[in-house]
Design goal:
Length: 165
């Protein structure tokens, strides 16, 4: 094995080798307009109560809305969601121009149509760590669509899962 003494480089290199599921996080800012971004840091924290977490850079365009939002939507992407993943990771002013989403009936958070599953949640904790934040969400509702192969992020690119062993 190759030793990498620089901790930042070691972290980057190791996680590039670790495939992650791709999600889109959506919410509304204080004036009610939609906000969202692509995330690969989503994970289940526990099932009783149903909790999930995700990470975000505090310099991200979505951070001001996340600091005060009450609800978020965590959307698991699939093979048909590649363009959505790319759009949600680029210019934040163009993320909701297409007519491929709707407002959740009770929370108002944006929900995209072409996803495997959606978790609607209430933000219960925000932990600021260095230049980032960990967001803890209590899940209040789930929406399931037709299951398609998940979209993954690996080696700085989007991929689909290979054959199962």
């Amino acid at each position: 094995m190759e030793r990498i003494p620089n901790s930042t480089e070691a972290l980057k290199q190791a996680f590039r080798r670790h495939a992650s599921g791709v999600c889109v996080i959506t919410l509304n800012n204080a004036d009610g307009s939609p906000v969202g971004f692509t995330a690969t840091s989503v994970t289940s924290l526990g099932s009783d109560p149903a909790l999930a977490t995700f990470n975000v850079a505090r310099g991200a365009s979505s951070w001001p809305a996340l600091k005060t939002a009450e609800h978020v939507s965590i959307q698991m992407l699939n093979e048909s969601s590649l363009q959505l993943a790319q759009r949600m990771s680029q210019d934040h002013t163009k993320r909701f121009l297409d007519n491929d989403w709707f407002a959740h009936e009770t929370t108002g958070v944006p929900v995209f149509n072409a996803v495997n599953a959606v978790l609607i949640g209430r933000i219960i904790e925000r932990h600021e760590v260095a230049a980032n934040a960990v967001i803890v969400v209590e899940i209040i509702e789930g929406l399931l669509a037709e299951e398609l192969p998940s979209l993954l992020y690996h080696q700085r690119g989007y991929v689909l899962p290979g054959d199962r062993l």
